[in-house]
Amino acid sequence: MKINFPLAASIILCLAINSCANRKVTRVDPSEQIDLSGSWNNTDSRMVSDEMVNQILGDRWLNDHTAAKGKKPVVIVGLVTNKSHEHIEAEPFINDLERACLKSSRIGLVQSGKKREELRAEKADQQTNASQSSLKKFGLENGADYILQGSINSIVDAYKKQKAVTYQVNLELTNIETNEIVWVGDKKISKYIKN
Predict the structure, then answer these.
(1) Which residues contact 30 (CB under 8 A, 6 or more apart)?
(2) Other CB atoms closer than 10 Å to residue 58's CB: what's the count?
(3) Which CATH architecture fits 39-194?
């Protein structure tokens, strides 16, 4: 059998154009809940971070700290490790945690990780390149009283075309000076997916 390559290429091109022509993209509100795949998504991240920060703010450690120190505690958000079955970027979840903490205004928040290193590099650069009146000095950072750390885990149960996925986020708040864990919380989200 002899194949007409120009004709075959034209047919493939037409099919490709038609398949793209049927695609429709619609702008939606980022806070709208859309769950296409059943995987961890931005709605899960926002819901979990808001609820867990509410748990943190509602626990007795906060009143104990304020009574003992006379000021609001300063928290640094540390690592949140993905131990789930799927690829989940932890940074958006960490950002959601930080945003929820800042909204409360009951706790202070300091920069962590690579962002803190970048700030320190900028301060170092200012020591030689900024005017005396505008340079920011070393040694004046607010030290964190507590570090928030945790993990994202998942349990998958699947049979034929059905799947149940439970995500569990565990967080711990630890006193940096004493290593005392002052708060432990978790939040679960379960999803049933049927193909």
Answers:
(1) 42
(2) 10
(3) 3-Layer(aba) Sandwich (3.40)
User: What residue spans define the domains of the chain?
Assistant: 39-194
In this predicted structure, what is the pLDDT of residue 18?
63
- C-alpha triplet 40, 101, 134: angle, nearest 5°: 120
Distance separating alpha carbons of residues 111 and 117, to the nearest angstrom: 9
Q: Half-sphere exposure of 41 toward its Cβ, with a 13 Å CA cutoff? A: 14
Contact between 30 and 46 under an 8 Å Cβ cutoff? The reply is: no
Report the alpha-carbon distance of residue 24 to residue 130 in Å, rounded: 51
**Residue 21 clears pLDDT 80, i.e. is over it:** no
Q: Token pair for residue 8?
A: 């075959």
Taking residue 52's Cβ as centre, other Cβ atoms within 10 Å add up to 22
Partners of 187 in the β-ladder? 169
What mean pLDDT do residues 56-76 have? 94
d(CA 81, CA 125): 32
Give the DSSP letter of residue 32.
S
Phi, psi of 2 (to 5 degrees): -100, 130
Tokens of 191: 């999803």
161-187 pLDDT, tens digit per residue, is 999 999 999 999 999 999 999 999 999
